[in-house]
Write a structure and sequence with these properties.
Oligomer: homodimer
Helix content of chain A: 40-55%
Strand order of the largest sheet of chain A: 2-1-3-4-5-11
Number of helices of chain A: 13
Radius of gyration of chain A: 26 Å
Number of strands of chain A: 12
Largest sheet of chain A: 6 strands, parallel
Strand content of chain A: 15-25%
Order of helices and strands of chain A: HHHHEHEHEHEEHEHEHEHEEHEEH
DNA sequence: TTGTAAGCGTTATCAC
DNA sequence: GTGATAACGCTTACAA
């Protein structure tokens, strides 16, 4: 790998002149420029970006840290960030945090040490105080989940409203016993969605049966256990609100067999192709990713401009077949 | 952000001693060590990994470049690489190349310039000669697709055998007119799978009707167009071999409506939950990713050890309902 | 227009 | 056991 020095030696100029030519500085004679360009070609010069980053103190890179990159929701966020970054000659590094909150600070700080230009994070911990030291140095934007213990920009979605919408929809279809499947109340989205679920009951003059709230669906087994708990109730639910798409995907076989009416928070690929097709609260992860990346660019370009800290995006209900239980029963007759 | 110098000043030692303490070098007095550790804590020292990488010439990072990270197949490869990397105190940076072959060299070289410890790549170009200059410096491992124009390790799957299996399966179910849906013959997997498809016909003493081969399904629209071409044939197929999972996902609504028997190369989430559930050739992307990452570690640790260049993993047919057309018709009666 | 010198933060070398 | 010094490849500031 040839360095600038090598090129300089070959073109018989100083390293600085090579730097000028390579970076398009106009203050170079046509003749010198040609000689340098020839040497660059001959030695097949490729800059060492680590050296540049080291020198300038900032890599043209946006970090993305999400619970699990294989989840289509987070993959969309990452893809959006990458699209915007590429358009600005930056690149993106993506890291999966995993489900273990203890690993988050390690993984995320490993990213931040790379002198990133910015970080987009969907955290799995309840406390991101460990990021405080970095906020002065690197723009940090939270997506999907609000920060806690640190002040930072965030782009989230209307969890409570969406859950309210979903639950009300089921109530309007005649359901009074609606199960709630969720992962972990440590995750703010889940907390907010449970609040929306409760609010819908109260709004309809109904009371919430705490037995119908099944948490712990963090992984596949947990989701199955939570679902089993609902099925074993004496007075079983007739409908289900899945507070996240991951649980809905994992439980798909059981949902179908159960005949329960279902609404899920979060659309996902092929949700419309299941039998019955799944009614969902539609989020827009691509927009979330785009907005977050845009905010990082804004923060970099205008360090002192005031920006709204919290942005909450609205969500819609996409009605499909999975809450048409009555109709389906009619058809089956 | 405190540097080693700052810590050194506070502990009244040299930077080198701080480095020794931080890196666990035993040649330090207990007393000095304690003083340094206190200073490290007080200043909340975090190493600048760019500087370390710059100095050592190699980042503890494995790059992963795939066509599209949102594709579950490639996401699995990345996840596997990340799991193995993490276990070896390394991290992973993931980049989507996208569908445009022209972008590949730019994107991939941007990665390589980061002084990576290794690169895992599933290319979209027909020629990776641009990587030749890097092979001496960075271990490069191809996954899913063989290299061309450059010598490198590869882990791929038995494309031709799998396609043969799939096609034979359909033939055994009484189909003679089997459509082939594929993306682009520039992609070696597609070429190989088409070869397997042809071989199955020849093996059964049948001839291939070239009209039944529909390519161009690189994106959603292309896939739809390819499928439409088959549907408009005068003598329409009774079955379909989808040469990749992405096309099958995109065409899911049409496949269901068409009533065609279908086998797809590549399993994907919820393929078993469609109606009918999809018979697939099952690949193992997680193993692909694990093997690739392991190979990079091996190459780093044993630069001179000989390794098999090409490894081809076997694939299995997972029989579900989508090629039981006769049965389904029977049931419908 | 071109070059020199210094330095980014860390680590390797080699003195002491 | 500890420290001074140089070096990694590049860019900024300044001088020529």
């Amino acid at each position: 790998m040839a360095t600038m020095r090598d090129v300089a030696a070959r073109a018989d100029v100083s390293a600085k002149t090579v730097s000028r030519v390579f970076n398009g500085d106009p203050h170079v004679t046509q003749e010198t420029k040609q000689r340098v360009e020839e040497a660059l070609r001959e030695l097949n010069y490729v800059p060492n970006s680590i050296a540049t980053t080291f020198r300038t103190g900032r890599a043209p890179v946006i970090g993305v840290a999400v619970p699990e990159i294989a989840d289509p929701f987070f993959a969309s966020i990452a893809e959006a960030a990458e699209t915007l970054a590429t358009a600005h000659d930056m690149s993106v590094v993506i890291t999966s945090i995993g489900d273990d909150p203890a690993r988050e600070p390690t993984v995320v700080q490993a990213l931040l040490r790379q002198a990133l230009s910015g970080l987009i994070i969907a955290p799995v911990t309840t406390d991101q105080t460990y990021l405080t030291a970095w906020t002065g140095r690197t723009p940090i934007v939270f997506v999907d989940r609000q920060p806690s213990g640190v002040i930072a920009d965030s782009f989230t979605e209307a969890d409570s409203d969406g859950a309210h919408l979903a639950t009300s929809h089921l109530i309007a279809h005649g359901h009074a016993r609606i199960g709630f499947i969720g992962d972990d109340l440590a995750i703010p989205t889940t907390r907010n969605r449970l609040a929306g679920y409760r609010a819908a009951f109260h709004g309809a003059g109904l009371t919430v049966d705490e037995d119908l709230i099944a948490l712990g669906g963090t992984n596949r087994d947990g989701g199955a256990a939570a679902f089993a708990k609902l099925e074993q109730l004496e007075d079983r639910p007739t409908a289900l609100f899945c507070s996240n798409a991951r649980a809905a995907r994992a439980l798909a076989p059981k949902l179908r067999a159960s005949g329960l009416a279902v609404v899920t928070f979060g659309d996902f690929p092929l949700a419309d192709m299941l039998t019955p097709s799944l009614t969902v609260i539609d989020q827009d992860p691509f927009q979330l990713g785009t907005l977050a990346a845009q905010r990082i660019l804004d923060r970099l370009n205008h360090p002192n401009r005031r920006q709204r800290r919290r942005t909450v995006l609205g969500v819609d209900l996409v009605e499909r077949d999975s809450c048409q239980m009555t109709d389906r029963l009619d058809l089956a007759r």
